[in-house]
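Tutorial sheet, problem 5. The four components below are modelled jointly, 1072 residues in total.
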Amino acid sequence: MHIRVGYELIYDLPQPTPMILTLNIHYSRASDLIRPDHLITQPSLPIASYRDGFGNWCTRLVAPQGSLRLTADAIVQDSGQPEVTPHAAWQHDVQSLPEETLVFLLGSRYCETDQLSEFAWSLFFGTPPGWARVQAICNFVHNHLTFGYEHASPSKTALQAFQSRNGVCRDYAHLAITLCRCMNIPARYCTGYLGDMGTPPPYATMDFAGWFEAYIGGQWYTFDARNNQPRIGRILIARGRDAADVAISTVFGPNTLSSFRVWTDEVT
Amino acid sequence: MHIRVGYELIYDLPQPTPMILTLNIHYSRASDLIRPDHLITQPSLPIASYRDGFGNWCTRLVAPQGSLRLTADAIVQDSGQPEVTPHAAWQHDVQSLPEETLVFLLGSRYCETDQLSEFAWSLFFGTPPGWARVQAICNFVHNHLTFGYEHASPSKTALQAFQSRNGVCRDYAHLAITLCRCMNIPARYCTGYLGDMGTPPPYATMDFAGWFEAYIGGQWYTFDARNNQPRIGRILIARGRDAADVAISTVFGPNTLSSFRVWTDEVT
Amino acid sequence: MHIRVGYELIYDLPQPTPMILTLNIHYSRASDLIRPDHLITQPSLPIASYRDGFGNWCTRLVAPQGSLRLTADAIVQDSGQPEVTPHAAWQHDVQSLPEETLVFLLGSRYCETDQLSEFAWSLFFGTPPGWARVQAICNFVHNHLTFGYEHASPSKTALQAFQSRNGVCRDYAHLAITLCRCMNIPARYCTGYLGDMGTPPPYATMDFAGWFEAYIGGQWYTFDARNNQPRIGRILIARGRDAADVAISTVFGPNTLSSFRVWTDEVT
Amino acid sequence: MHIRVGYELIYDLPQPTPMILTLNIHYSRASDLIRPDHLITQPSLPIASYRDGFGNWCTRLVAPQGSLRLTADAIVQDSGQPEVTPHAAWQHDVQSLPEETLVFLLGSRYCETDQLSEFAWSLFFGTPPGWARVQAICNFVHNHLTFGYEHASPSKTALQAFQSRNGVCRDYAHLAITLCRCMNIPARYCTGYLGDMGTPPPYATMDFAGWFEAYIGGQWYTFDARNNQPRIGRILIARGRDAADVAISTVFGPNTLSSFRVWTDEVT
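Model answer (structure tokens):
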């Protein structure tokens, strides 16, 4: 299966403005790029790349005063298969978790583990450890929250989503991540493209998607509390402790995002 | 100058419990250890160390059911000189910041940069960039907050401290860090020992101290919005994005901290 | 059980000489030190500590011209129990090994994995993976080598021991480590004290002992191809890729070791 | 100056095979990547990256049975200036070396410091310490060895190169590193791309290059005993104690490297 993915962001900037972008398709999918996702800037600007502490490739630039258009349009090869469901993946004791996973047990900007720990233990204590527990958490979050773009807020945390009982995909991910961490299961945030391949209409207004990965059975597995079923054609951009680490853009100055489009379509 | 530092923590644990400890004096001070700060556990337990993503040496162990005593008692050599005040340290443009400092511009568990950005710009926009701006932030935080152990809370964030106008040293640090980041100055949280050397009485009840470092003039400099003056004998334990990364202990299960003592004294 | 351990090293030095010592009992046993193993130097010298990349605490000093005596005499508490035999510890697939273990699959100064790989696969291919394979390697090494202090050489490698069919405890460890790594099992070198507790006479002339640890079943387990049976009272000093990383002393200049004693005795 | 660099490796694998690759351009050059060097695998495979203990970004994957093609093709910005010659860089006393440099004084897989120490002192004792001594070592190695690909061997050590008097660039580096360490100068191995920019023909058949860095005058400086003159356009991939730590690929199973190409060309 070939999937066309891309974005167009247009910023209006009253002054020259440094930016950090986390928009590149993840390096682990580089082999699948039939047409690369090269960033095009208008006006044309010098850009620099760097790898953040999570391994994501980020882009730095200084935008001039005025209008800045950022766009990319890639074609990605995909197996077309739905994600595996790791029914047999066991839960690690904390003491046997690899060192590199431990930071994903801690609290982070949008994941207040200290605030939700008691609730998490009361609800998930009795669930079978490992995959079944992560799935129970996804089921809970999926049912507890009502989806709606009107509930989106860049400062919304897992606790706030839990209390307001609504949110968008990133809130579903943050709440599920927080509950996993409370139960001593390392969990990390993912952002990327996710289209409608294989799902029935109506189709969502497109945005970047947020989901998460949990470390069970000796590896990281994909979970998605928003959709809560295996999907086709998920294309990773970046991973971090939560959405604060993988904002698509961090703009160091006043700005207006005057246009924002994301696309993910099967190419036939 | 020789400084004796140490701690005693006693936990009561209803079941075997994994723990991660960030209690070792920072590796950058290892050469100053006249008597090392080796962790003593009672009962004696197998322990393992590892270096987290910030370079801090952490300790992992599994405590048995019952009472666990953790203690260390070190002697550290120190210059006895107060910290330098880097009056001439300039502020980096975002685009000239080293890549490894960029993560310290982002929001984190206790530092809601997105929530305080507007306030920060309104108040500090007119201050001279660089050292003077960081110092203006420290002055503001120092005056805005009222110190009091009764205001301490493990889940308190910079925004909450800002609004409640009170806190303990870690809240002073979190608020100053958040405001620095809002002004595009990388800032990171520090924890360690800080005694009363050279200050007038009355002396504080001892606890671990929290302060921060800001990246200006091409390096990281120490700032302390709580005390807001150069001090003698600060001994670093660990650095991170905020206190969530350098909790002295992360206990993976129910527990009671039944005793907690920290000491920092000049040895004569 | 209480064990008294210690050493006395006397060097003759024709000129002032920097030294690095790896002689401290491992930090993981600090809780068991009834009497600490403080290094005494004669003449009295300033010393500095640091932690190497493996977490071992090392000591730096500059010895003056003349005679230098280094000694320590500690009492260590021990369970008195023989080491566990992890019959059920499985072998990790290479792809599921924690990142921090991977360096212990590579070749190192005394462990020429590239040279012994073919042999290792021919001999151990058919053994059950995991504990049984490591034990088969220990059995092979135990029988293949003849022990003798006359076969000791500071530059002897695993391949040379394999070919000469003799060596001392560190050669047994190096050969077993190399064969484990060839079979994709992470293995690291250990040095420390090992007495005769619970073994029949005749007793060995005392030296520091070398053994190894293999990563199976999600953790590091102790193995000793020289003795090839569980022992009592093993007291770790340091771990590394092989003996090059944990030499008891690295002397940066000409020197004569005029006296060398190590002791390890049960205290009653 | 823009330099195009890349590689193509084709392996034939009789069974599914885990691999570790050290092929990414070093993170310190990430900002210079006009076109990143993302790894393309054919067939497309899941890959994961991690940072080894030296800070190099490595890649893990499990190759399926059959043919595996690994390739990358990057464009790197470069100053186009030849490397500096640090004539004034002094030699540190061992006791004033930073702790993190000390491991680069020890022996390692291909650098038998214990075997070459006496020779090194006899030959380089009289040379001026610091840069002049490292350069004297480079001069010696450059003249002592005869270059030839027919002398290449993956198990060849510094001592073997010294005795056979021939080798390839990695042998030049290993011998020079060993001699530096014998003279108490920390030295570490480097691998990367090195083209013919600014040198007269005939041009070498392309391979990855090996060189080294020595710690003098408070920093690490590049040296190249093979070429023994400042070069243009050296692009670092990874650093380690010697070539064992930075093998471009570590393949955990039988394999045939059926094709191997490396390119480094100025783009005009």
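Marking note: The longest helix of chain B spans residues 131-144. Full credit if you identified this.
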